[in-house]
From TrEMBL:
Residues 225-382 are annotated as: 2-C-methyl-D-erythritol 2,4-cyclodiphosphate synthase. PROSITE patterns: ISPD, ISPF. Residues 224-377 form the 2-C-methyl-D-erythritol 2,4-cyclodiphosphate synthase domain. Signal peptide: none annotated. It comes from Roseovarius marisflavi. Gene3D superfamilies: 2-C-methyl-D-erythritol 2,4-cyclodiphosphate synthase (3.30.1330.50), Spore Coat Polysaccharide Biosynthesis Protein SpsA, Chain A (3.90.550.10). This is Bifunctional enzyme IspD/IspF. Residues 1-224 are annotated as: 2-C-methyl-D-erythritol 4-phosphate cytidylyltransferase. The gene is ispDF. Its EC number is 2.7.7.60, 4.6.1.12. GO terms for biological process: isopentenyl diphosphate biosynthetic process, methylerythritol 4-phosphate pathway; terpenoid biosynthetic process.
Amino acid sequence: MTIAALIVAAGRGQRAGTPGPKQWQPLGGRRVIDWTLDAFRATPLIDRILVVLHTDDLGLLPDSPDFEVTTGGDTRAGSVRNGLEYLAANGGDVTHVLIHDVARCCITPAHIAQIAARVQTGDTPGVAPALAVTDALWIGADGQVAGTQDRSGLYRAQTPQAFDFAAILDAHRAHPGGGADDVEVARVAGLAVSIVEGDESNLKITHPPDFTRAEKILRDQMDIRIGSGFDVHRFGAGDHVMLCGVAVPHERGLQGHSDADVGMHALTDAIYGGLAMGDIGRHFPPSDPQWKGAESHIFLRHAVNLAAEHGFKINNIDVTLICERPKITPHSTAMRAALAEITGVTVDRISVKATTSERLGFTGREEGIAAQAAVTLVKTCA
Ligand SMILES: Nc1ccn([C@@H]2O[C@H](COP(=O)(O)OP(=O)(O)OP(=O)(O)O)[C@@H](O)[C@H]2O)c(=O)n1
Ligand SMILES: C[C@](O)(CO)[C@H](O)COP(=O)(O)O
């Protein structure tokens, strides 16, 4: 079974009142489209992501192994049709498709997963989220109420709308004019569509005030954590110390069960701390002989992967090494690069700095090196 997400993003956003199409506008520090894409990327049930772009916009989305791109049509339905034809022609193994408006950028991975899981059961060819209308409905004419409308049984449709792939492809081919949405096309073709509960937060940015609403929703969905770590290793025999992944020549080494990289250990603990998932000793017990002499990047990689598994990105890293000697500054660029390679964080978001303790205490007496680290972890959608 292969589930594809088809994100239509070829519209011009005429009603949004922005200088360019709404999907490229900044929202909470990123672009609207980036939020939408990340929600689908973070949904494990989604196997493929296809973005349908206007030909004028092709250069605006950098190439990524996470998604494919094709071009759209003059209408939303035309863009959906192009996307479906692309999926049919490229790979051909798609069994289900979730069709989504790029402008619904507050969609959550949990909601996507619920819809994908339902269509995957095969008990219905179509599944779509919607909210029952709760306001009274009027018919207006010339600014006057000209009539009323019974609201019972009426719903406000949202996306993603999920379908059996072959069935919705046939439906769009049979009805090239399309409809307001893909549920309308499916229904004209005789396909049953089940309703799942929609989400008030899953708004479609349409008019200028919607940007402010969407930004507030995204901010409320964010989970921002700060983690801190601290470690100490004692000097012993040796001719170098391992610090933040770099072998720094010194007349002594650091003692420890592993390679005693005190900086990397502090950083690893900071990540575990931000996740509230214990510490390095819990994940790699010193009593376990398999970690004797282990290179510390193993620990750091474990913490980084754990963060990713729980949906967190490491936003920035700040490590402070506390020692009289060796001098750290000549090696800090190499240390930042080593940490960047392991964590995937760009070097401009990694700081490695040092301080002495003014010859006071154990670091001042050069009995060992201490390190502390801070990280921020950010989960962008619930
Ligand atoms: N030719 C089109 C028209 C619309 N869409 C997409 O369909 C979704 C829903 O459409 P809408 O909110 O109406 O977006 P726009 O067409 O961009 O906006 P407007 O109608 O205000 O111009 C959006 O994600 C939009 O990018 C598309 O892919 N191709
Ligand atoms: C598909 C849709 O989002 C369902 O509510 C909606 O119909 C698209 O909006 P448009 O403004 O009509 O393109």
